[in-house]
């Protein structure tokens, strides 16, 4: 079992360069946790108890408005760590985390992780790099929500999926949404009705052909132009 923990730790950028001795010392401080799809790891504002590492599955980091609307901040997969910042600043968890699918995670208590970083300053420096990268991502989210429309953000997702795994054919580029309209709305910072409405509008305008989660991009060039539109 300890070997499995060390494999996960080795895949995590924070700990990839540790020696075998250091890795074993860290693995001894780690506990395993299992979460079912939809289960909450911690809520926004909960006291920070420690650092999490994803062994398998996906974890959604999100904030919830008073009206119950979600904004997804990140989706963390295997090899990712999260909740680094509150481990060090003494604050509560600034966002909530739940399992997007059945997941296994490793947990290191706040005290153990702080002590480990004191013994291994290189790890602390890597934490700063990870937190800095996360801050840049959050600034990008703020910029998108502030300066782009729901239509533009939706088009950006469709184009990203088309470029990443789209299947070209005579009809266009075939792709499949990897999430429900509700989950997509949470990622785009809007509501499900607006996602459905904008997909229908893009279909009526001839850019897409939509059948549930299956989409055919019929006018890729035109869709890219629409993304850059100020509408």
Question: What distance separates the N and C termini?
Answer: 55 Å
Order of helices and strands: HHEEEEEEHEEHHHEEHHEEH
Please give the share of residues in helix.
Answer: 40-55%
Structural class: alpha+beta
Compute the number of strand runs.
12
The proportion of strand residues reads 15-25%
Instruction: Indicate the mean pLDDT.
Output: 87
- Largest beta sheet: strand ordering: 1-8-3-6
Task: Describe the sheet with the most strands.
Answer: 4 strands, antiparallel
What shape does the CA trace take? elongated
Low-confidence segments: none
Explained architecture:
With 231 residues, the chain is of the alpha+beta class. Helices cover 46% and strands 24% of the residues. The protein has nine helices and twelve strands. It has helices at residues 2-11, 20-27, 84-89, 110-119, 121-147, 150-165, 181-188, 192-204, 220-227; strands at residues 30-35, 40-42, 50-56, 59-64, 70-76, 81-82, 96-99, 103-109, 167-168, 173-176, 208-211, 214-217. The protein has a four-stranded antiparallel β-sheet. It has a four-stranded antiparallel β-sheet with strand order 2-7-4-5. The protein is elongated. The mean pLDDT is 87.
Give the arrangement of secondary structure elements.
Elements: H1 2-11, H2 20-27, E1 30-35, E2 40-42, E3 50-56, E4 59-64, E5 70-76, E6 81-82, H3 84-89, E7 96-99, E8 103-109, H4 110-119, H5 121-147, H6 150-165, E9 167-168, E10 173-176, H7 181-188, H8 192-204, E11 208-211, E12 214-217, H9 220-227
Antiparallel strand pairs: 1-8, 2-7, 3-6, 3-8, 4-5, 4-7, 9-10, 10-12, 11-12
